[in-house]
Design brief:
about 350 residues, alpha/beta, 4-stranded parallel sheet, 9 helices, 15 strands, binds threonylcarbamoyladenylate, binds magnesium ion
Length: about 350
Amino acid sequence: MTKILNPTIENIKEAAAIIKNGGLVSFPTETVYGLGANALDEVAAKKIYEAKGRPSDNPMIVHIARASDLGQLTPMLSEDIVKLVDHFWPGPLTLVLEKKDGIPKITTGGLDTVAVRMPDDEVALALINLADCPVAAPSANLSGRPSPTKAEHVIKDFEGKIDAIITGEDCKVGIESTVLDMTSEIPTILRPGILSAEDISTVLNKEVIYHPSLLGQDCDDFSKISKNKNDENLKTSPKSPGMKYKHYAPKAQMIVVEGSHKKVKEEIERLKILNERLGNEVGVILFEEKEFTYAAQNFFAELRDLDEKNLDLILAGAMSSTDGVGFAVMNRMFKAAGYNIVRV
Ligand code: TXA
Ligand code: MG
């Protein structure tokens, strides 16, 4: 049976005890809900993969509540890492670091690096503190489903399958954290999030790049990031195993319409009418031109809502990728559509 717990201190204590005893608890973070277990307990970490139906070579992010817990996970604490921790934690930045031996391989998907972040959410921080161990937590969705940004999404995917779900607020960021590899020569973003290469570069006062495989996003404008495209020092094979999996796929066919905002609107309307005339049920995801933060907050929830309706077709309007948050939203939108793109 799954305990559905609202975030009172007693309930958070109860959930922390479940994690200590090797159980699985879903909890809110500022990005998306996580599905947590003791990161140092091999058996518990393994249960996460089973519950999600996730391939076990896809590593998990380890969540901590105090920067001083970093030393337990990684031997490599450079000045740059300290700068990032001071500036961005707690917050939506995950650092890929050299891993210490004590972390089970199952947690890191067999890699010799570990991804760590400190979430900016009081409930999450209280839970991790009380559990008194680093908490491995991928997004709390069944593998292949959109990431959960509301407690009801987690309940839908996991009621009856895990020990407890803490029902917090809706996630204020709405897309997963920026994953930054600090083990490469040039700090490299492996997964875009609301913190952009530019934001991180400003703090480090050095170049920060997007992994070249992200630049295959097929967006209309790469002017800001394309200079990295031909960097021969970088391999284009996925560095982050998560990159290679199909993500967030809705049951309906999904098409992204890309072009100027006005043309995108018109084309979506045209395709909608056309398909409805042929007897298809059509859903639309279309944000205002520059509402990037709003789009990040709402994209997964809209995708889930449309998916519930058993539609035949979902038409989504592309946003500008020159904006860092727009780029991160488009990363999710293209993946959800399986890179099915119409240009106007
Ligand atoms: O916002 C978030 O990061 C959320 C919340 C719950 O904190 N978590 C999350 O976890 O999105 P997950 O497991 O859904 O995504 C983790 C991503 C995957 O793409 C994985 O491949 C990558 O991080 N990753 C984890 N460890 C890594 C490592 N050692 N090296 C490279 N990539 C890693
Ligand atoms: Mg995920």
